[in-house]
Design brief:
mainly alpha, two-stranded antiparallel ribbon, 5 helices, elongated
Length: 160
């Protein structure tokens, strides 16, 4: 039963993330908007204070590697574009499908793994997977953003 509730929660959270990402594409990006989500998410690591959520070193490694592999898809589909009003995320038609696909893969993995791994450890593993996915993605976004800001600053100084 806990697996069902956590799956429902994952679908709801995935839907919310999708809506937020679609709205965010309409506003300029800033370094703060790129950096803050992983920082806010990092507070979730407090779950590991409780033994119920603790994972083995192997489970940690597996979850982190899967998250980093998933991040490659997000990195490849996240690009910026310059407009007069600022730097914006370039809307990708594939992004909603990729996000939904990653969510479906996570749900299938959760359903399969829930028969062999405790629900608490599985929750911890999926937090690690998500964190391992968001951190490389946001680092990549930040580096792209800084590059554009640098080029934009040089171009602006040429005309001053």
């Amino acid at each position: 039963m806990p697996v069902i509730w956590s799956t429902i929660a994952a679908v709801i959270m995935g839907s919310v993330v999708l809506m937020i990402r679609m709205k965010a594409a309409r506003r300029p990006v800033s370094a703060k908007k790129i950096i803050l989500p992983p920082l806010f998410m990092s507070t979730g690591a407090l779950m590991f204070i409780f033994p119920f959520f603790r994972v083995t070193p192997l489970e940690l490694t597996e979850a982190l590697l899967v998250g980093m592999i998933f991040s490659i898809v997000l990195i490849k589909t996240s690009n910026f574009e310059e407009r007069e009003e600022g730097i914006f995320m370039k809307p990708s038609k594939a992004f909603p499908f990729i996000l939904i696909g990653l969510l479906v893969i996570r749900i299938i993995m959760k359903l399969v793994l829930s028969s062999t791994i405790d629900v608490g450890a599985l929750s911890g593993m999926f937090w690690i997977l998500a964190f391992g996915m968001i951190v490389p993605w946001r680092i990549s976004m930040y580096l792209q953003y800084r590059k554009l800001v640098s080029v934009r600053g040089k171009a602006a100084s040429q005309f001053a």
